[in-house]
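Deliverable D5.2: sample structural annotation.
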Amino acid sequence: MARKAKRISIDTKLCKGCHICIAVCPHGVLKVSETVDNRGFFLPVVADIDACKVCGLCEMECPDFAIVVVSSDE
């Protein structure tokens, strides 16, 4: 059975909006927010959680450790 994500958490206090997570996601799960946060950054947001296969690339490549992907079987 294919793995599915129950939740993708992006810590807005740690994230600096580098968008590496968006670039490395092979499934288009994340996108750039249309609104600026209080620090002036366009942070990533979850666009399609159903497309997430819990590969963990976004978590592994995030230089700020700001993303956590929780699998539905956890």
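Annotation notes: The two ends are 14 Å apart (CA to CA). Strands lie at 5-10, 30-32, 44-46, 67-71.
The annotation will be released with the project's public dataset once the embargo ends.
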